[in-house]
Specification:
Length: 92
């Protein structure tokens, strides 16, 4: 009698298990893209201190947002920083 209600749960578990690697790969791609944007932002829009380019506070916060899993916000901030400096972000 319990076997019937367990089938939908088992199917759902199977679907989620199959989709998990896809979601993880997408998040990994977003994190890598965020890293590219961060590097470009520091190189072209950072603060020059003693001959070295340093990130601004906003850049650091955006990078930390990406690391924390909030890649949409971090990427959006870094994209805006680059575009404000007339720098076209690289394609994804």
């Amino acid at each position: 009698m319990l076997a019937r209600p367990m089938k939908p749960l088992l199917r759902l578990s199977l679907v989620l298990a199959l989709l998990a690697p896809i979601a993880a790969a997408a998040q990994s791609d977003d994190l890598a893209y965020c890293g590219k944007l961060y590097d470009l932002a520091v190189r072209y829009r950072g603060k020059a201190i003693m001959g070295d380019m340093r990130p601004t506070t906003t850049m650091i916060i955006a990078q930390e947002q990406c690391k924390a899993g909030n890649t949409a916000t971090g990427i959006g901030t870094l994209d805006r920083i680059l575009r404000d400096g007339d720098i076209t972000p690289p394609p994804r």
